[in-house]
Design goal:
Shape: globular
Helix content: 25-40%
Number of helices: 24
Oligomer: single chain
Largest sheet: 6 strands, mixed
Strand order of the largest sheet: 6-5-7-9-8-13
Strand content: 15-25%
Distance between the termini: 70 Å
Length: about 750
Amino acid sequence: MSTSKRIGQFWIPLAWIVATTAPACGDLVIAKDRMATSAIVVGQTPSEPEKRAAAELQHYLQQISGALIPVCADGTSGTERRILMGTPASNPAIAGLLKNQTKRLSDLGEEGFLLKQIGTDLIITANSGRGVLYGTYDFLEKDLDCRWYLPGELGEVIPQRDTIILGKIDRTEKPSLLLRNLHIVGAPGQYDRTIADWMSRNRINAKKTNASGVNDILAELKPRAIDPYTGVHAFAWFVPAHEYFGEHPEYFPLIRGRRANPGAAAMGYQLCLANPEVQRIFLDKAKRYLANHPDVRCFGLCQNDGDGWCECEKCLAMGRSPTDRYVAFVNIIARQIGAAYPDTLIPIMAYGQVTDPPSVRPLDNVVADIYAQRCFPHRLDDPRCPTNVKVVKIIRGWQAMVKPRRLLWGDLSDDPEYLPRSTARTISQDLRWLASEKMAGFIGLIMPISLENMKLYTYAVARMSWNPQRRYDELLDEFCAKYYGNASSEMNRYFRILDERAEKHPDCQRWGTAAQHYFNLLPPAVLKQLGAHLDKAQVLARGDEKAERRVAAEKKLYRQYVDYLTAIAGRDDIEEGVQQGKISNLVANAGFENWPATMKPITGKQSAQPDRHPQEILLEQGWTNEWIRDTNEGTGTFDIVEGAAPEGNKYIRITCANDKSYLRIMQVVKLKKGHTYYFSVRVKADEGVSGPIWLNQDHPAGLDKIAWYSSTRGNWQKVVIPEFTAARDTGTIILENRFPKLFPGSVSFEDVIFVDVTEMEK
């Protein structure tokens, strides 16, 4: 362990205390008065991570002291003070000095490292280049006080010293979680070198990616010791519909008596897994891929997004549940991949309809990534949280079938509105629990746009997945002190308020249930308190250019809270105008008063034609300005309930009969491209029930406008889609009971309002 002394709120490494005094006997002087007094020595044939380790150390030593420390590869640096880097195999000078340290090294595995001073030499060594790189970053962090809180220059904290003198160093470390993965996703080019640098410097060792995208990022990942992890939706990559459906529709799922064409997106559609030709295609493609990509150690056989599992007799005979059938199929492929590539792991996704544990045991080379709809404000093992109690039951079911070192927890961490989410404390507690369960690791998913929003979350993930025993409060104190400088105290109070509000929040919040959650999380009094702390922090940060920018960035996020909450509160003038008949409502039968006279079921499965725009089907059949029922998946009821609604005499209640149901109603409305629109609906949802309320303009091209609801605790609540500009001349209103996976139940809708604001304001 490194030695530190606490002064006020700051942790100061012993190296800096020593640096203010004359060197003691045995101290290592790396730089003095901005001049190099030592050399970095690597072996003759260092691996790519070892080369990067030497370059990173040289770069940051120069950033700290102004001294350019030379890098030598011949073992004779010309100076008595050396920083020896590499493995005993790659650097003979290290092997000679560590003859008595073989046991310490053998216990470190692939990623652990040894830092040791012997005489005037500092040794940074490990059993692999990855371990050497991690040891280098640990040295920069613990002994030289460097930090990387966010990708890019603003996220770095690099101290300044003209002289660097180190006292005695002798420590080993290795990670607790074997796989520490952040799935930072986005459009091509959004995952860039600065993000890869940040991941590596914080010892994140895996990047979840598509198999087809590995070549685009491998050159950035390999020297940074980040493994590509191809455990993402991939059935459409293995068997693309545009290539096979025309001649072989039997490769695709039989759903309600017909073979469905998944189209290019393939969302909500799988494959006919019992088909031997599908199995052959998977195996052939997997073997070819692995032969051409020796750096891929985790090669996923992951289903497409959504459900849509095949209902043919042969598939149903593979197992009693979709999870059983999925695992049985994966085992067929994994057995043969394992024979050819025994060190390759095969990730699968316990997600959607295959979240439930299997009764079929996956093979030993199969890794299960569990993505269950967890509650974010509460820790996973919180016995008071009804959602997470059910999630832990799912995890326990998988633990009964899969070895702990073959299980990962996948966190759908992003907020759909890209608002700051107070989950750093929660995820720290989760990682400690996962480590106590001996699970293999963690996968967090966020968009690059959310890196600023979730900087504390990502930093906590990095630090706590390496050492889950670290205290979150200590991490938060360090973050605020180093990142915000003189504004530390106010920013610390700001983040602690957010933490406390999230931790004590009585409601469960699952992914996508932001609207009501933020109303309850941040009432006006709390928002005012948060704003006051930011204003004080802004004053305290003056004169420190980076601290000023960092506080300003947080104030911008705070404004997002305020603006978002203002927007989803709705406009009383529009609501009252519609109710009084003074403003035209574009929705027909907005209160469901005439439902029995206009209700029509969709013929067949509307979404079984994904190559066509859904509105085309509705318009083609003459379904405009009337509510249409779409069962989509599973079974349930659509009931018209008399009375008890906030306005009007009737409302519609959609009930999912079981945890596999997914029910919705729709109405196509005419729009005017370029006009501004306002949309709201009143909602009452049972405990655990949640879903989207959305205006579909051109799915999946990113033009949808979505608001989310969650449990309303027996009350009617208004859910608003903030004003937006139409991009098409038609849109489809969709009201759904979407996520009953953990809590089958009902959601009721009443008083749908959709207004052309542009026309209203003329």
